[in-house]
Amino acid sequence: MASWVHADPGDRPVRLMIFYVPHGWPIEHVDPGGQGQGFFSGDVLSPLAPIQDQVTVVRGLAMNDGATNHAALPTVLTGFASGGEDDSIDRRIAEGLGVPAHVLGTVPYASFAGFTVDSFLTKHGGAWVRPTENPLDAAEALLGSLGSSSRPDDGPSDADFRREALALTERELEVMHDAVAELTAEQTKLSLHLEAVRALKAGGGGPNLVTCDEAPVLPAVDAMKGLDALDPANFGRVLDGHLEVIAASLICGTAQVVTLQNMYVNGQVPFDFAGGPGIAKGHHDPISHSWDGAGRTEFATCQRWFYERLYEKLVSQLASTPDPSDTDPNRTVLDNTLIYCCSEISDGANHNSDASQVWLDGAAHDSYLPAVLIGGAGGCLRTGEVIDVSGRHNLEMLATLGEMMGVGGLQLGGQTPDVIAEVLA
Hints:
Layout: E1 15-20, E2 55-59, H1 89-97, E3 101-106, E4 123-124, E5 127-128, H2 135-143, H3 158-179, H4 184-202, H5 219-222, H6 235-252, E6 257-262, E7 270-271, E8 279-282, H7 283-288, H8 293-319, E9 337-342, E10 356-360, E11 363-367, E12 371-374, E13 385-388, H9 394-404
Parallel strand pairs: 1-6, 1-9, 2-13, 3-6
Antiparallel strand pairs: 2-12, 4-5, 7-8, 9-12, 10-11
Helix pairs in contact: 2-6, 3-4, 6-8
């Protein structure tokens, strides 16, 4: 019970998903320049057009600590070259909320070789984390506590138990509160306990309540039975399965902080797999390395495909589901979720990790790290805007993620970075 009462009474429920895609993006297919008009008009971010009022594009971000090129992968979520001394931000935020940090991966690699030094994105407990590769394993890890949909009705679910336990505790506290009416100090302490328990009953703050009585149906996950999650031919199926698991776990409250790592640096998955964009070339080289117009259009098609899957299998589900942990029936799960889309590279072909100009067909384009924020973050994010943060680094963005998730003032690498106030509501 004590672990449930974790945040200030009245806080809205919060969830964090980190969505990593390697090799950056072709900037001219993302940023049209000017005031940011056209971000959703048909290029990389166009799949997000239906919910663009809940999308914030952060323009001008650069990698911290001089990290650049693919060697910046460990810096993406730690803020420091080679990963620094601290855990990655997903783990730091999860610790602040008192919940686990889950790491899933659409990461086909030679099973006999395993991950290499340039493969790791997240660090937990001082060790780099290999993601869970198979959506079937992910479903068990994130949703297994709910049991199957065929669970016999011979006992209370976890959600029922929590609701009944909180109701019982509330009644007992009310009786105790009335019994010490003459003892002001004791009555004040009990009032605080009552407020916290009532906040938990209403939803919000700290670990979210589990709100599903049984595991949902997961067709994309079921489709993975008997398939090899490390086979590049199954790349699209694995991604859909992981997104399906994450969507269900965020809605049900069985997971609150989840990272999804798509490939890794130098990932050479051919993009002609089933359900993919139909480009029979390696994602790293030549797709992301292309300088010519035709090649960069292919790169844009591949990067847009990731946002298409993210929207269809996860974002649209969260946007259409009233938040069962929120007292306001008009707020959706997406309103109380923050999805952070990121990469280690700014412009794919240039292989830079800073905010600098890239020359294409004789014209200069301002490149910067991909940083796309989706959702309302529990009311903490300025949404529906393109925000210029030129001169800021990703370490400050990581601190800002903590601020929006209710874990402010984080020390990262022995310092307390400034938050990027421009993106806060």
